[in-house]
TrEMBL record:
Ranges where the Glycosyl transferase family domain occurs: 198-323
Membrane-spanning ranges: none
Entries under SUPFAM superfamilies matching the protein: UDP-Glycosyltransferase/glycogen phosphorylase
Keyword Nuclease: no
Residue span, Glycosyltransferase subfamily 4-like N-terminal domain: 26-185
InterPro entries recorded: Glyco_trans_1, Glyco_trans_4-like_N
This protein's UniProt keywords: Glycosyltransferase, Transferase
Name listed for the protein in its UniProt record: Glycosyl transferase family 1
Source organism of this protein record: Microbacterium testaceum
Length: 378
């Protein structure tokens, strides 16, 4: 914790759709899981509001959110909810707000990562400072809630300049605090012959384009990640599996690190305004070079990084050429992996990023009269 400051009493609010546990449902869940671990390691008292089945949930039933239950696995989706789920989440957030109001004296600040608007309003309804991290492009429900709160009790932070600009256009200003990765867990690998793609298997992440790029370069690629759109997987991924591509499913962090670290190059293929792209920082931390579509915050994550290249979104031929070049460069100069890893540790270390956030949480938690603009870097 910050020298001279007492430990914070933090309520961390996670996204509600998936539990915080390995294998992580996506980069957002991995980020919040790391946040809880790190804040506790720094001596702060952390209570978690998250979906049933999450790690770190102590015996606090009011802060447990319902996880969606699908009647058939093929109906599961990252964009739709099962019937009645939205209402159940609303009720759970109402209960959490009531508990927060009753126990306001037990908390200093809310560290909010939810995509639900309710926690934003807690800064007014529960009279508690809230720091909301913007992990996505602007969402209408969150914009409506943001218009109801004041800067005196609420701070917004964004995971990239690109994300901050998109929200600013809609009237929400945010500090920029990029995500980080645990570089003690994401360790350097030796590389290998195959290419790799990791992340949520959904249309906006476009892993089918990574397969096409590998085919274009006559390379083999391994895909890892949770299927977030079953129809997309069946229609666009399954027919492309075979000689050039293999799908290994969602992996725990240690297994995913071994896979990425033993690959020649990682492909990142977003076809939406990618807010950050945690898989980029993860790959770089293993020393594996990254070839990516330049969209959203991707170029910010790769800025100044050796072993990286960006191409226009959707340009499969250019992506194949860039990836093949990075893979060949790694063979010619094995130290490239060392340099890539070193640069990733300097730029994307979890400890460095979270110390900045810790300063903001501490600043916002102070009484209004004692607040000053915190000294932060981004």
């Amino acid at each position: 914790m910050i020298r001279g400051q007492r430990p914070l009493r933090v309520l961390v609010v996670a996204p509600s759709r998936y539990p915080l546990r390995q294998p992580h449902a996506g980069g957002l869940e991995a980020t919040v899981w790391d946040r809880v671990r790190w804040l506790r390691s720094r001596g702060h008292q952390v209570t978690l509001c998250a979906a049933e089945g999450s790690d770190f949930l102590d015996d606090v039933p009011e802060f447990r959110l319902p996880a969606p239950e699908w009647t058939r696995p093929e109906h599961s989706s990252d964009t739709e909810y099962p019937r009645g789920y939205a209402e159940a989440v609303d009720a759970a957030f109402d209960a959490a707000r009531d508990r927060l109001i009753a126990d306001r004296h037990h908390f200093d600040v809310v560290d909010n990562h939810s995509l639900h608007p309710a926690p934003i309003r807690w800064s007014v309804e529960a009279d508690i400072p809230v720091v909301t991290t913007l992990h996505t492009p602007p969402l209408e429900a969150l914009l409506e809630a943001a218009a109801e709160v004041s800067e005196a009790s609420h701070r917004f932070v964004a995971v990239s300049q690109a994300t901050a600009r998109a929200w600013s256009v809609e009237g929400v200003d945010a500090f920029v605090f990029p995500n980080g990765v645990d570089t003690d867990q994401w360790i350097r690998g030796a590389g290998g012959p195959s290419w790799v793609w990791s992340g949520r298997v959904v249309p906006e992440k476009a892993p089918h384009l990574a397969i096409e790029a590998a085919r274009e370069a006559d390379a083999h690629i391994v895909l890892a990640g949770r299927i977030g759109d079953v129809d997309y997987f069946e229609q666009e991924i399954v027919p492309r599996l075979g000689v050039h591509a293999r799908y290994v499913g969602p992996l725990h962090q240690a297994d995913l690190c071994r896979l990425v670290g033993s690959s020649a190059v990682a492909l990142v293929t977003p076809m939406w305004e990618e807010p950050f792209g945690l898989v980029i920082a993860e790959a770089l931390a293993t020393g594996t070079p990254v070839a990516a579509f330049d969209i959203g915050g991707v170029s910010e994550v790769l800025a100044g990084m050796p072993g990286s290249a960006t191409v226009m979104p959707g340009d499969i031929v250019a992506l194949a050429k860039a990836a093949a070049h990075l893979a060949a460069e790694g063979v010619r100069e094995p130290l490239t992996r060392v340099w890539t890893r070193q640069a990733a540790v300097r730029q994307h270390s979890l400890a460095h990023r979270h110390r900045e956030v810790e300063r903001v949480l501490t600043h916002v938690a102070q009484p209004a009269a004692a607040r000053r603009v915190p000294a932060v870097s981004w």
